[in-house]
Amino acid sequence: MQDATIREIEQFLYHEARMLDNRQYHAWLDLLTDDVRYWMPVRTSRYAKISKSVVLFDEAGYDETDIAKEDEQAIMDEDKASLQLRIARLDTGMAWAEDPPSLTRHFLSNIEVEAGDTSSEFRVFCNFIVYRSRGDHQQDFYVGQREDILRRGDDGQLKIARRKIVLDQNVLLAKNVSTFF
């Protein structure tokens, strides 16, 4: 992978984070492909098969994977149309979860870039912290990892074709999850 491509992808992600922090949601939608999947699988606590602390009678309880699979429960599983509807709802002034609007700050780190399945795609991994405050007393921290598929369009611009968001918590303390990651 060329350094110039990695730098371009990093700058793309930083630009996207700034757009979200500035609540430029309609412009953010333009960074998504029409076939985007925006997915936050549920994370659960599961025991390792070598665990000596408990004995489970159901072997399925020893599943090593703590992240829900593609066909299992998710906190979010959206496409571009559902994301557009969420943003349109924000425009109505009737979205109680965002009135007053949240203030967010996105921090990205440990960005890694790999070749994707096609020559126009890149697999991008990063860690994130999203700080959200709303009103006088609500504060939330979301910490986790993202796996993105970025696709270069015919115009040469990068767009997000897939985003998998994995939180490092399996119990959400936030009153809602209206934040974009």
UniProtKB/TrEMBL annotation:
UniProt source species: Entotheonella factor
Record-linked CDD domains: ring_hydroxylating_dioxygenases_beta (cd00667)
Q: Which Gene3D superfamilies match?
A: 3.10.450.50
Q: Which SUPFAM superfamilies match?
A: NTF2-like
**Which UniProt keywords are present, listed alphabetically?**
Oxidoreductase
Protein name per Swiss-Prot or TrEMBL: 3-phenylpropionate dioxygenase
What Pfam families does this protein map onto?
Answer: Ring_hydroxyl_B
- Tagged with keyword Transferase: no
